[in-house]
């Protein structure tokens, strides 16, 4: 890797072909909560929802062919599936004081679909921030949800490895970070750097929280074969199991002089991925990391 480039700046192999094994041509079924979001929040007629989503997905695929786009994972609204979602929504809707509202940052937010879900469920949009490396995805998010003139959430493009002024302006001011399908696209050392930056973004107080989900494995280690990173020329990735994820946060805590309550659950992924996408021992990790002091 060029020493002058951050891990996010490595130019990918332009594999936008629909032959990529993580590209699913058809949408299949749309969950009731996703349909509700498009029909009620975005006011899209029911008969137009599928065609609308498909058109935006195709534009996004040409920008960068991430697996979450190819496999329609952005429609999961994953934050609402997290066990902590009711607590998070309550904190956002009922902050401890009007003078200090609860703030949430969706890191690597793609179209910021989870922020739209929070707003639809009653969270104040002006306390929500969405950050992605690709500004085009943030722009497409407005097209996807048809809220360019109405959404008051704060969206900005930034590289987590080279924070810009907008990201630095949030340091020490965020209560909750949502980081889904993000850490797992990097190696161990890069993940440690990301965790350190997340700590800088969070308020330095008990109760600051990081939640999300990511791909893991029963056997922790560096992996390169049969991952999108191999085909996108982004290098090898580190797949955690529960023990290695806790170990990483123990190291991060020592490096930063902080203590964290790390909760991680390893789940079987059922039939969500194509058979050829699977790796032996692949799991989904659901994470919740809370500051203890």
Summarize this structure as a short list of keywords or feature phrases.
9 strands, 10 helices, two-stranded antiparallel sheet, 7-stranded mixed sheet, 293 residues, alpha/beta, 17% strand
Descriptive account of the structure:
With 293 residues, this protein is of the alpha/beta class. The protein has ten helices and nine strands. A seven-stranded mixed beta sheet has the order 3-2-1-4-5-9-8. Strand 1 (104-107), helix 5 and strand 2 (128-132) form a beta-alpha-beta unit. The radius of gyration is 18 Å and the shape is globular.
Walk me through the topology:
Elements: H1 32-41, H2 49-63, H3 67-70, H4 85-93, E1 104-107, H5 113-120, E2 128-132, H6 135-145, E3 154-157, H7 165-168, E4 176-178, H8 188-201, E5 209-217, E6 221-223, H9 228-231, E7 237-239, H10 242-256, E8 260-267, E9 282-291
Parallel strand pairs: 1-2, 1-4, 2-3, 4-5
Antiparallel strand pairs: 5-9, 6-7, 8-9
Task: Note the gap between the termini.
Answer: 37 Å
Question: Which structural class fits the helix and strand makeup?
Answer: alpha/beta
Uncertain segments are 10-15
Q: In percent terms, what proportion of residues is strand?
A: 15-25%
Q: What is the overall number of helices?
A: 10
- The averaged pLDDT comes out at 89
Rg from Cα: 18 Å
Instruction: List SSEs in N-to-C order.
Output: HHHHEHEHEHEHEEHEHEE
Total DSSP E strands: 9
Cα shape: globular
Major sheet size, sense and barrel closure: 7 strands, mixed
């Amino acid at each position: 890797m060029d020493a002058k480039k951050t891990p996010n700046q490595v130019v990918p192999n332009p594999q936008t072909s629909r032959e990529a094994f993580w590209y699913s041509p058809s949408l299949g079924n749309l969950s009731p909560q996703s349909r509700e979001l498009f029909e009620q929040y975005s006011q899209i007629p029911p008969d137009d929802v599928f065609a609308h989503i498909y058109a935006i997905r195709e534009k996004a695929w040409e920008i960068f062919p991430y697996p979450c786009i190819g496999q329609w994972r952005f429609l999961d609204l994953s934050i609402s599936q997290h066990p902590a979602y009711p607590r998070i929504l309550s904190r956002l809707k009922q902050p401890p004081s009007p003078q200090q509202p609860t703030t949430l940052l969706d890191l690597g937010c793609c179209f910021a679909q989870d922020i739209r879900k929070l707003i639809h469920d009653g969270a104040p949009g002006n306390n929500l921030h969405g950050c992605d490396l690709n500004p085009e995805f943030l722009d497409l998010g407005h097209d996807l949800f048809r809220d360019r003139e109405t959404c008051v959430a704060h969206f900005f493009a930034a590289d987590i490895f080279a924070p810009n002024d907008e990201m630095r302006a949030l340091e020490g001011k965020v209560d909750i970070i949502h980081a889904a399908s993000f850490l797992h696209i990097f190696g161990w050392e890069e993940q440690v750097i990301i965790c350190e930056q997340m700590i800088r973004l969070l308020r330095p107080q008990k109760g600051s929280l990081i939640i999300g989900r990511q791909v893991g494995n029963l056997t922790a280690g560096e992996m390169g074969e049969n991952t999108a990173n191999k085909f996108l020329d982004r290098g090898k990735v580190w797949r955690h199991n529960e023990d290695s994820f806790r170990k990483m946060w123990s190291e991060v805590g020592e490096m930063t002089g902080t203590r964290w309550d790390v909760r991680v659950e390893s789940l079987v992924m059922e039939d969500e991925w194509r058979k050829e996408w699977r790796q032996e021992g692949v799991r989904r990790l659901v994470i919740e990391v809370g500051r203890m002091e």
